[in-house]
Amino acid sequence: MNVTATPALPLGDDALILSHRLGEWAGRAPVLEEEVALANIALDLLGQARVLLSLAGDEDELAFLREERQFRNLQLVEQPNGDFAHTIARQLYFSTYQELLFEHLAAGESELAPLAAKAVKEVAYHRDHAHQWTLRLGDGTDESHARMQHALDALWRFTGELFEPVEGLEAAPWPTLHDTWTTRITSTLEQATLTVPEGPQRGGWAAGAGRQGLHTEPFGRLLAEMQHLHRSHPGATW
Amino acid sequence: MTTPRPAETLASATEATPQPTDWPLWEVFVRSRRGLSHTHAGSLHAPDAEMALRNARDLYTRRSEGVSIWVVPSAQVTASSPDEKDAFFEPAGDKPYRHPTFYEIPDGVHHL
Questions:
Q1: pLDDT band at B103, cuts 50/70/90?
Q2: Which of A31, A36, A129 lies closest to B59 in CB terms?
Q3: Residue A80: partners with Cβ closer than 8 Å, 6 or more residues away
Q4: Per-residue pLDDT tens over the stretch A133-147
Q5: ipTM exceeding 0.85?
């Protein structure tokens, strides 16, 4: 497999894996309208993944024939869907990050700039969707508030990894992106009557080495399901 | 203290859990990029106007840019009654003075 060393690979993996997780919601969303919204976001992300992975090699080979240790996605995006609040918390953390990163890339002149310029509009919508649901769950009933807070707390330790410099993008203003991210998340959570989680985002206690190919346990099962058909019938066209 | 019977337990559980059907119905009107007026596109359920707009965007516009969406709670729409159709809509064809058809429309006037 020919893989070009490019930041498109880790960013493409983020989009591919989160898209797969959102696809698992098909037929299981709380209401029909939300079903459509989640599928929409999944489709946007899959579209981004296809463009990004194509910059690194053959998109199908990259998606279906790499082993777990070769994937460069963030540990955040491989986390299981959990309840609806977990899915929304994961989306809020990730979309806010992705929007900031793509805004930065769109303003540059790298090979990623055209894709980032197109995707940033999609991602702004994803972030808005997660923002809206965070407000409603956080400021909804006692039950929805508790669940949303629990989801935010549970996923917090995966957020430090978001701002570890991506290979090939070391020049991006990572600390500034982190500050802006924290400001935006804090603003949304305060508006939603929620508390910004405490605890370190980095270090021994925190999680996150997905960019180095170290993943959490649920990721293996995700790959097994995603790659099953391709591995059973190698070389088939469809 | 008595143990609630299954039927009562079920009833209280139903009360405590709002059903998706509690989401009111909204009517959606869309004006396409080159369209002149908003056209009724369909309806959907949403918890409030903001979510109704976002759902309408997903369901009815496929996010085309330059479109305008209106959402209206269905309960706010008052419709004419089919029974009163005749009195409401019967055109007064024998009263030509009711129809402004005797004017030449200048070339510069569009969409009249």
A1: confident
A2: A36
A3: A21, A86, A218
A4: 999 999 999 999 999
A5: no
Helices (H), A5-112: 8-23, 32-56, 59-64, 75-78, 84-107
Closest alpha carbon to A212 in A50, A75, A24: A75
Domains along chain A with CATH numbers: 8-232 (1.20.1260.10)
Nearest to A197 by CA among A235, A148, A163: A148
pLDDT digits (tens, 9 = 90+) for A45-94: 999 999 999 999 999 999 999 999 999 999 999 999 999 999 999 999 99
Closest by alpha carbon to A22, among A71, A61, A79?
Answer: A79
| Residue linked to tokens 């929409």 | A40
Residue B16's closest CA among A130, A225, A151, A143? Answer: A143
pLDDT score, position B19:
54
Please, which residues have CB within 8 angstroms of residue B87's CB and are 6 or more apart in sequence? none
Give residues 15 to 54 of B whose Cβ lies within 8 Å of A: 20, 23, 44-47, 50-51, 54
> C-alpha A131: how far from its chain's center?
15
Residue of B48, B58, B62 to mutate, testing the A interface (most A Cβ within 10 Å of its Cβ): B58
* Largest pairwise CA distance in chain B: 87
* Pairwise CA distance, residues B96 & A18, whole Å: 66
DSSP SS3 for A49: helix
- State pTM to two decimals: 0.85
Contacts of B47 in chain A (CB under 8 A): 136
Contact (Cβ atoms closer than 8 angstroms) between residue A64 and residue A232: no
Distance CA B51, CA B54 (A): 5
User: How big is the A-B interface in CB pairs under 8 Å?
Assistant: 27
φ, ψ of residue B25 in degrees (nearest 5) = -85, 140
Strand partners, B69: B30
